[in-house]
Amino acid sequence: MFVSSGLILNWYYAVRIGLDMKGYWKSVFRQVLPMIGVCLLGLWAWNALRLNPSWGTLLLGIVIYALVFGLAAYFLSTNDYERGLVKGFARRFAKRG
Fold first, then answer.
1. Mean pLDDT across the stretch 46-68?
2. Which terms are listed as keywords in the entry (predicted)?
């Protein structure tokens, strides 16, 4: 399955269609690395804090994870164009408030 859908299709996209598959996978890994780091940080924090499992703890963990992941993704895996889009959205959102 990996060979047919992974390697062969990537070769086809690169050679026959002319897509930059190396650049694509570089971009994918650049986006996955912050997620892995945030997950490891969250796992460490969960074990270090030894919080009682409850719905409130789960909700708090989700909010903290989303904030930390969003910041990590913004600073580590976005390019200047994408940052500009986020800044433009934030400016429009701030003007409404």
1. 88
2. Membrane, Transmembrane, Transmembrane helix
